[in-house]
Design goal:
mainly alpha, elongated
């Protein structure tokens, strides 16, 4: 049972990282993100 939990956790983490890397491939997302971060200062 412990193995299954670890496997599910690693799978969820890998999917989240893949989603983040997919968003960074889009230049409009990076521009929006940088504008939002710059707006905080």
């Amino acid at each position: 049972m412990r193995r299954l939990g670890k496997f599910i956790g690693l799978t969820v983490a890998a999917a989240a990282l893949a989603g983040i890397f997919a968003l960074y491939g889009r230049s409009d997302f990076l521009l929006t993100l940088s504008n939002q971060l710059w707006g905080c200062f």
